[in-house]
Every structure is written in structure tokens, then in C-alpha cells.
């Protein structure tokens, strides 16, 4: 178990070099909902894409053309993920993942394209992630340590 945490910390350290914000979330009760945090700038958001690093070209959630886009969404996330704030006030593009299972473990990345950038709107986004979330879902009764990580600053929080 401690070896797993060592690997997670090494992975986070490597990610820190390329991502603005990294979050580690661990849930010890499958079936719960969890918010995966992400915040873009205050400008007009054109595209939001949430992906999980092991899904290839499929994604968790994509918003474009002022609506959610179900094309190429991984089937396991259909009807289980929504924007926390559909109006994305103040650049908040966090998502709520509902009815967690142990299959939801993984590293989630949030990418945002805003008005005024020269990124294309179609296809998978190749921009740098705005945030990355390492999610661990463990069976009930196991101890979980939660860490909120911003760059190289780690603050341990209470178990969930």
C-alpha cells in the first residue's frame, strides 16, 4: 500500500513540471459522487475536454458549440458526468462524476480553449492540461489519505 503512494507521489512530481494544478482525490465508498476540480481563465470558454489518460481518443466529457458533445465519449461515463456549473461562471469547468466505481480510478486531465486562442475546435485537444486529478476509488472500510497538491506544495487533509 505504501509503495502505491510512493508511485503516486513520483507521478505527481513528474506531472508538476507540465501542469498548473494537480489534485489527488481518494474515495473509500464506491457509489458516491465526486467533483473533479478545474478552473480556466475568466474569458469566454469555447471548448472544455475532460479525459482520462488510459482511454486513448475517447474522453470523459467534452463541451463545445455551447453544449455537451457525446461523440467519442467513453460509454462508461454516459449519463454519469456533468459540469458542476453549466454556465462556467468565473471559468469553473469542474465536473461531477456520479456513482463512482473502482473502474473510475485513474488520472483525469482538464483542457480548456478560450476565445482569442488559435486552437481548432474539432478533434482531440492537444493543449497543455489546465489541471490533472489522480482519482483512487477503494472498497469501503480501507483507510484513505487525501492530498491537495499545488505545484510542489503538499497539504495533507483528513481522510474522507
From TrEMBL:
PROSITE patterns the record matches: IG_LIKE (PS50835)
UniProt-recorded name of the protein: Ig-like domain-containing protein
Organism, as annotated: Cyprinodon variegatus
GO MF assignments: signaling receptor binding
Gene3D superfamilies xref list: Immunoglobulins
Keyword terms of this UniProt record: Immunoglobulin domain, Membrane, Transmembrane, Transmembrane helix
BP GO terms, sorted: regulation of cytokine production; T cell receptor signaling pathway
Keyword Transmembrane helix among UniProt keywords: yes
Domain Ig-like as annotated: residue spans: 31-131
Cross-referenced SMART domains: IG, IGv
InterPro entries: Ig-like_dom (IPR007110), Ig-like_dom_sf (IPR036179), Ig-like_fold (IPR013783), Ig_sub (IPR003599), Ig_V-set (IPR013106), IgSF_BTN/MOG (IPR050504)
Signal sequence bounds: none
Superkingdom classification of source: Eukaryota
Entry's localization field: Membrane
Sequence intervals crossing the membrane: 6-27
Annotated Gene Ontology cellular component terms: external side of plasma membrane
Ranges in coiled-coil conformation: none
